[in-house]
Amino acid sequence: MDTLDLKILQALQNNGRKKNSDLAKELGVAPSTMLERVRRLEETGTLKGYRASIDSKKLGFGVEAFVSLILSRHEAKIVREFEEEIKNTPHIRACYNITGRFDYILHVCVHDLDQLGNLIKSEIMSLPGVVKSETFIIFTEIKPDTGLPLADELINGE
Fold first, then answer.
1. How much is the average pLDDT of 148-153?
2. Which three-class secondary structure string do you get for the chain?
3. What does the pLDDT look like over 27-48, one tens digit per residue?
4. Which site among 60, 66, 137, 146 is 20 to 30 Å from 158 CA-CA?
């Protein structure tokens, strides 16, 4: 991973639809070099994919929340079953195994509070091993996901 790779990642993180030729011109390298670098970043899994940023509110998803969970036991079988079920629950946007008094934190997105209540009571609390949950409703997004701080890596790496 060198400075050019970091510059490529930063540019694509800001605009994943940027053409290779435009990116090559912007970074001062040949288009063939750019294509080779981007392919290598994809093949190594450093560049995991390209996604559109969608405004959830415009699609009627009016409530987002974080739901913290405690599992009864941390046996491999229960954890594996829990994590597989999480992956198959559409309204759970992300799930993280964390430290502290909770074991997991989920980021959920639903249409309204009724749907949030149903999701928690009917789906989340029935997941393998779940014994307690605490919900934190998001009122306002102060800083959206802005990607990795690659500018710092570029400054510190040079």
1. 80
2. CCHHHHHHHHHHHHCCCCCHHHHHHHHCCCHHHHHHHHHHHHHCCCCCCCCCCCCHHHHCCCEEEEEEEEECCCCHHHHHHHHHHHHCCCCEEEEEECCCCCCEEEEEEECCHHHHHHHHHHHHCCCCCEEEEEEEECCCCCCCCCCCCHHHHHHHHC
3. 999 999 999 999 999 999 999 9
4. 146
Q: Could you give the residue range(s) of every CATH 1.10.10.10 domain in the chain? A: 3-52
Token readout for 110 is: 């639903």
Fold of 56-138: Alpha-Beta Plaits (3.30.70)
Asked whether the predicted pLDDT for residue 130 surpasses 70, the reply is: yes
- Amino acid at residue number 62: G
Pinpoint the residues of the chain covered by CATH 3.30.70.920.
56-138
CATH of domain 3-52: 1.10.10.10
